[in-house]
Structure formats: structure tokens, C-alpha cells
Amino acid sequence: MNLDTIPKLKHTRSNNFFLLSGPCAIEGEEMALRIAEKVLEITSKLEIPYVFKGSFKKANRSRIDSFTGIGDEKALKILRKVSETFDIPTVTDIHEINDAKMAAEYVDILQIPAFLVRQTDLVVAAAETGKVVNLKKGQFMSPESMKHAVTKVTDCKNEKVMVTDRGSMFGYQDLIVDFRGIPVMSKFATTVLDVTHSLQQPNQSSGVTGGRPDMIETIARAGIVNNVDGLFIETHFDPAHAKSDGANMLDLQYLEKLLTNLTAIRKTIQTF
């Protein structure tokens, strides 16, 4: 997929990796704008093509009392405001067929969650909007099997598709990234590594997903060395009090140093 097909995406000629980054969920307008502004400041300095990420609702929750959102339309309007305020593209995940058409009115990229990527009707609904579709590899799927998910999109006459690895289940309560999958999936579509979700520790007895944010740079470096096209990093200025996925998000204050290091690695490996 040509990155120029993503509306408002800047620095597409920088030969850098691109970045999907933002909070796990939209908690309110002020927090979304604050995070977007800071990430944009950093990525502009480093010439990293940037897409703001935020879920307008969360459907995959361990407990019924977990945060699911502030209201669909309210959150989608905030995503639109982020895009219009900073002239950047946005991505959000969808969970039901009807979400596709609704969300497509507000964002530039529709993301299919890993646990739903085999749902044909959902993938087709996203593809038929004509938007860019980001397919997250199921934690239970092989890299090779993602070819079929990609084909579902392209069979709908939509070539704007990317694949994101977010780790594979390793026992009941951990994930592991098999970097052999990156070159495999890159044969099918543009590849992205979801750094933060790959470090989740799901199925905890508390009903709240854990994580290993201390390993974010380790996984991200390996992704760059293995030639991923893009990175997915959830970030928040106060992860401890984030309403979703705080345990594995990157504290926003550390993002600039991380991206600076990753950009240097990218430039180095391109000399070989």
C-alpha cells in the first residue's frame, strides 16, 4: 500500500517508518487533543509520518464494569476534531458491521481488532467503505493465515490494506512476538508492529489486563531491525489512571527519546 493513499499523512518521502499512536480509548476531548499535539510535535521534528489512534469504544473487556467509552458519536466527533485541528489522519477500531459505515464518516483508517479479524462480514464492511483497513493479526493465527484476511479486503476492490502483528498467545497469560512473521506478512500487505499490545498480559485473575511497558523499547527496536513499515504505540500522559490498557501503554514523557532512538536505528540499517 502506498502511504500517500492515507489522507493528510505527512513526511511520506522521509523514508522513515510510520507511526500509529495515541491513547487506547478516547476519554475526552482535552486529553485527546493534548496527546495528539505532543505526538505531532515529536513526529514532525523526526519526520515520522503520523496517524493519531484512539478507540471510540472498547468492546473486548474482561469485566462488565470495565470502561467501554464516553459514547460513540461523542468520541467519533473528538477524533474528527483531532484530525481537523492538527491536519493529521486518524484510526479507530470497529467491532460490528454497522460500526464501519458510521466510523468511516469520521476517521481515515478502520482497524479490525485481532479477536475479530476472521469475521468476514466485518472485514468486508470495512473494505466496502473505501477507507484504509488495518487488519490486526489474531493472537491465535499464524502469519501465513493473514493472507486470507488481506484477500477479503482486496476482493472488495480495496487495495488500501495493512496488517498489524500484536503478538501471539504464549500460554494463558502472556504474549510473544515471533519476528519470523514480519517478512511473511510483508508479502501480503504493508506491515505494522503493535509494540504495546504485544506486551500485554491478558487473563489475569483480577479481570484487569497486565503488561510489560519496560520492554517497549526492546520490542520496538527489534521491529525496526526486522524492517516493519510502521509501528503502533499506545501512549498516555498518565498511564496509571488511563481508563483502558494503562498497564502496557508508554508514558508520553518517554516517547520522544524512544522515537529518536528508533529513527537512528532505521537510518543505520538502511546503509546495509
TrEMBL record:
Belongs to the KdsA family. It is an enzyme of class 2 (transferase). Pathway: Carbohydrate biosynthesis; 3-deoxy-D-manno-octulosonate biosynthesis; 3-deoxy-D-manno-octulosonate from D-ribulose 5-phosphate: step 2/3; Bacterial outer membrane biogenesis; lipopolysaccharide biosynthesis. PANTHER family: PHOSPHO-2-DEHYDRO-3-DEOXYHEPTONATE ALDOLASE. NCBIfam families: KDO8P_synth, PRK05198.1. Coiled coil: none annotated. InterPro entries: Aldolase_TIM, DAHP1/KDSA, KDO8P_synthase. The lineage of its organism: Bacteria, Pseudomonadati, Bacteroidota, Flavobacteriia, Flavobacteriales. It is found in: Cytoplasm. This is 3-deoxy-8-phosphooctulonate synthase. It comes from Christiangramia antarctica. Its EC number is 2.5.1.55.
